[in-house]
């Protein structure tokens, strides 16, 4: 439940200050349950996973050399990527990156 609440806060609130305030309120609510409950529900981000990107022209799924935590929001500057399969280039701002060859954002 703890990870779900923080995931919703991270991905459902667009304003960074509101997001941090909400996450702080979640942490404070956990602390009120006492040290045993708080210790058990600490956020563990899990392993860093490889990022994939899908070509906008031919649908080729490509693995990148980047990794990220699944619970963190990913932001990148716009970048042009060339597809080795179709030879076309496309611009991505990071919203096209995903965590697996069969998983789209």
| Structural domains: how many | 2
Q: Distance N terminus to C terminus?
A: 22 Å
Summed up, the helix count is 3
Helical proportion?
A: 25-40%
Strand order of the largest sheet: 2-1-5
Structural class: alpha+beta
Instruction: Report low-confidence residues grouped into runs of 5 or more.
Output: none
* Major beta sheet summary: 3 strands, antiparallel
Mean pLDDT: 81
Task: Name the overall outline.
Answer: elongated
List the helices and strands and how they pair.
Blueprint: H1 2-12, H2 16-31, H3 35-40, E1 49-54, E2 61-68, E3 79-82, E4 89-92, E5 97-98
Antiparallel strand pairs: 1-2, 1-5, 3-4
What is this entry, summarized?
This protein is α+β, with helices and mostly antiparallel strands. Helix content is 31%, strand content 23%. The longest helix is centred in the N-terminal third of the chain and has 16 residues.
Key features of this structure:
two-stranded antiparallel ribbon; 31% helix; 105 residues; 23% strand; 2 domains; 3 helices; alpha+beta
């Amino acid at each position: 439940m703890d990870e779900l609440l923080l995931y919703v806060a991270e991905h459902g609130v667009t304003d960074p200050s509101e997001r941090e305030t909400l996450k702080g309120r979640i942490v404070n609510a956990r602390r009120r349950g006492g040290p045993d409950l708080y210790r058990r529900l600490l956020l563990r981000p899990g392993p860093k996973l490889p990022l994939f990107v899908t070509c906008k022209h031919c649908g080729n799924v490509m693995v990148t050399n980047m990794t990220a935590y699944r619970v963190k929001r990913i932001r990148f500057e716009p970048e042009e990527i060339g597809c080795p399969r179709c030879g076309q280039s496309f611009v991505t701002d990071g919203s096209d990156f995903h965590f697996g060859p069969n998983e789209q954002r």
